[in-house]
């Protein structure tokens, strides 16, 4: 058996990200899912690019602020205590708009955790 208690505020943010991202999976001993905590100031993006996954399902639980997600079908919004889910093969781009009044704080979970499962999406093609 294995148990882990992880204080997310004590994890150093990942470098070279468009917002503050703390990777929690490894410290939590998880191998079958990816879990991250994102804090995006107004004008910041969560992912590195507009993208989709072949197999991974994603869930974004908004702790505070409002998460905006661009999709080919239109923009979505999720406020505090809201869960937004994304199925495989569904392009998405999560961000906090420039004119937002506060940061957005989100816990993101993806499963299964598969390397090479992410693909850039070009909405113009």
Structure explained in plain terms:
The protein is mostly beta strands and 125 residues long. It has a single domain (8-120), classed as Jelly Rolls. It has no helices and 10 strands. The termini are far apart. 0% of the residues lie in helices and 41% in strands. Strand 5 and strand 6 form a beta hairpin. The mean pLDDT is 94. The strands form 3 sheets. It has a 5-stranded antiparallel beta sheet, with no helix packed on it. Residues 1-23 are annotated as: Disordered. Residues 38-100 form the Cupin type-2 domain. It holds the Pfam family Cupin_2. One of its GO terms (molecular function) is metal ion binding. This is Cupin domain-containing protein.
Write a brief caption for the model.
The chain contains no helices and 10 strands. The chain is mainly β and about 120 residues long.
Number of helices: 0
> What structural category characterises the helix and strand content?
mainly beta
Strand order of the largest sheet: 1-2-9-4-7
Order of helices and strands: EEEEEEEEEE
Radius of gyration, taken over Cα atoms and rounded to an integer in Å: 14 Å
Estimate the global geometry from the Cα principal axes: globular
How many strand units?
Answer: 10
């Amino acid at each position: 058996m294995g148990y882990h208690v992880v204080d997310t505020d004590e994890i150093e943010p990942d470098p070279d990200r468009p917002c503050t991202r703390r990777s929690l999976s490894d410290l939590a001993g998880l191998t079958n899912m990816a879990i991250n905590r994102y804090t995006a100031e107004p004008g910041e993006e969560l992912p590195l690019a507009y993208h989709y996954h072949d197999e991974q399902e994603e869930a974004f639980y908004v702790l505070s602020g409002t998460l905006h997600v661009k999709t080919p079908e239109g923009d979505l919004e999720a406020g505090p205590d809201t869960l937004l889910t994304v199925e495989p093969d569904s392009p998405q781009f999560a961000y906090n708009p420039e004119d937002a009044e506060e940061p957005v704080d989100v816990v993101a979970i993806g499963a299964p955790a598969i390397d090479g499962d992410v693909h850039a999406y070009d909405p113009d093609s």
